[in-house]
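Homework help board

Subject: predicted structure for assignment chain

Our instructor gave us this sequence and asked us to write out the predicted structure in token form, then describe one feature. I got the tokens but I'm not sure how to describe them. Can anyone check?
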Amino acid sequence: MAGRTHALKRRHAESPLYHELESAPRRLTEKHGRTLSGIKYSNGENPLAREDLVPAEGTIIDKQPNAFFKVQLDNSAHVVLAAISGKMRKHRIRILVGDRVSVEMSPYDLSRGRITYRYK
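My token output:
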């Protein structure tokens, strides 16, 4: 059975249609700015790069289930629902009500964020 599969692959590789389909992703990328895995941006960057996030600092005011917290931002009454970042989960950094934290928010939804640092 393995010999037959190899023969089919070889026959497909010799086909002109195979070579046309093989070069299709490059043509699509050049023509439309897209790749098969998703959108390719002209500047080569992710649309939500780390530089685009809005940093803020605040105080934990309430603990929610599944490692979510309500954070009141400094110098405002704005409250953000924030989750613990992956590195903080990995290193089991504990957060309690009243702790000062650093939060990153997306510019698209300022009501949700990610806790990236707990101040000592």
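Reply (TA_rk): Your tokens look well-formed. For the description, you could write something like this. The mean pLDDT is 78. That's the kind of observation they're looking for.
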